[in-house]
Design goal:
Helix content is about 25%, strand content about 45%. The protein is built from two helices and six strands, in the order αβββαβββ. The longest helix has 14 residues. It is elongated. It starts with a helix and ends with a strand.
């Protein structure tokens, strides 16, 4: 799973450099930024399913252009992202995107959910 997480982080950073696993670990927070987490489920002896939740944070108040543009870029990049890794074949499918209320006037948040099927090679 370590290789899968590294691959996701690398791919997210190719879309937006301020991308992090689980939490933003930067000493100084730069907006917009992206955080992702995974949750793994078993399918059978040779495959697992993995939900990929990507959260995009932006501090542009009511101006939605930046967060919408970045969210759409991530969606299109991972929509049908397939790759062969050393340990598995990874297939990604977009599932949903939604606005998450923050109760703050200037902070915006979007959640994108993907489903990843991991076909293990060993």
């Amino acid at each position: 799973m370590k290789e899968v997480i590294k691959t996701i982080l690398k791919e997210l950073k190719s879309v937006h450099s301020e991308s992090y696993y689980i939490k933003n670990s930067a000493k100084t927070v730069k907006y917009p930024y992206v955080v992702f987490a995974t949750s793994l489920t078993n399918i059978d002896d040779y495959a697992d399913g993995c939900y990929l939740d990507v959260d995009v944070f932006c501090n542009n108040g009511l101006d939605q252009v930046q967060i919408e543009t970045l969210s759409e870029s991530i969606k299109m990049h991972f929509r049908h992202f397939d790759t062969m890794l050393e340990d598995c074949y990874m297939r990604t499918q977009f599932q949903a995107m939604q606005t998450v209320p923050t109760n703050l006037d200037d902070l915006q948040r979007r959640n994108l959910r993907f489903y990843i099927k991991l076909d293990w090679r060993k």
